[in-house]
Amino acid sequence: MTGGTVTAVSSNGEYSFTKPNRPVITLLAGLGVAGDVHAGVTVKHRSRMAQDPTRPNLRQVHLIHEELFQELAAKGFTVRPGDLGENITTRGIDLLGLPTGTLLRMGAEAVLEVTGLRNPCRQIDAFQDGLLKEVVGRDGTGAVVRRAGIMAVVAVGGPVRPGDTVTVELPDRPHRPLERV
């Protein structure tokens, strides 16, 4: 088991690209972040709802590693926690390297189950021109590389605050790499 720290929590009750930081968010088992527009048993992202509103919501909670913001700053972009619509910003965890089904224990109670990679959209370029190509690219083999965070569902509810520890529990092997959800 490895771990890290929650550096910020964010939520928004209205559809908007960014989410304001909060002193605490409450995770609700099987739903997501209390009061957040993306909380629910079925999909809540507009593009997903247009395709099939009955699909299960595998994108209840969006997490981004704070280290990404530092990488982007070195390339001239200013991105702060909540700016890319994430609910939880972490430090010290290789979120993108986690396998599907990883459990993230946050604070005293909350547990998230990692479902996959965030598939960033063109709204990122509307936020800051050129940012999309920094968070989605291709590797040497031509495979798409998504770096805009991961998605999870809430297995056990509870409050999450900046400063909370995050404990990573990997699933049994064989590990399945994260795919776009």
TrEMBL record:
InterPro entries: MoCF_Sase_C, MOSC_domain, Pyrv_Knase-like_insert_dom_sf. Residues 19-169 form the MOSC domain. Signal peptide: none annotated. It holds the Pfam family MOSC. It comes from the Bacteria. This is MOSC domain-containing protein.
